[in-house]
Amino acid sequence: MIDLVAAAHGTADPRGIREVHALVRSIAGLRPSVPVSLGFVDVDVPALPGLVDRVVADGNQAVVVPLLLSSGYHTAVDIGREAERRPYQVQAASALGPDPVLADVLVDRLSACVDLGSASGSRSGSAAVDRVVLAAAGSSDRRALLDCSATAALLSERIDRPVEVGYVSGAGERLGSVLTRSTGRVAVATYLLAPGFFADRVRRIAGDLPVSAPLGADPRIAALALHRYDVARKLSAVAV
């Protein structure tokens, strides 16, 4: 059986680490026959290169699945490098996003804090919203920005409201700037996998606006990670 190596960004925040570990446990629970391990591309340990070396030391094969919401530097360089180092043993899967599954989870997180019943009125005591700003971590890589824009489009289709992207780092328009020029009733959709520094920053920038929780260890995201694993395995088999 080909190992699944989940590759997360890493965080110094224990809440984020717990959430990532919970997601990896969910992945393992959905496919008990697949050996699953977790490595990090930054901040935390075990570092991805050393983990991959240990996994394939006995001739095993592995698929590295990014627990990252967008493509960009970490997927192309940090994770891509592992596949380049051991081309006959290691395959790199695609990032989790953009994907309709993530848009569905975003809708659920938003629904927990605002009324999405209709743009013109509220069906409950919570305030309806006219537009949503998707708050993303950001990147200097254009591929990541395009992926976030694609996710915003998927979310807009589902909630029948305009959705723009605001970033808390990297290139692209900053979250505060997008919120300042956004008119009407605005909500913020947190496009982050886990709580931590960036999620806290999103809440600070948003002020009194409703802000959804991070995506978290949702079983649908665990299933999506396994789908990325399966696709990478099939592509590897075709290449051989």
Automatic annotation (TrEMBL):
<dbReference type="Pfam" id="PF01903">
    <property type="entry name" value="CbiX"/>
</dbReference>
<keyword id="KW-0456">Lyase</keyword>
<dbReference type="InterPro" id="IPR002762">
    <property type="entry name" value="CbiX-like"/>
</dbReference>
<keyword id="KW-0479">Metal-binding</keyword>
<dbReference type="InterPro" id="IPR050963">
    <property type="entry name" value="Sirohydro_Cobaltochel/CbiX"/>
</dbReference>
<protein>
    <submittedName>
        <fullName>CbiX/SirB N-terminal domain-containing protein</fullName>
    </submittedName>
</protein>
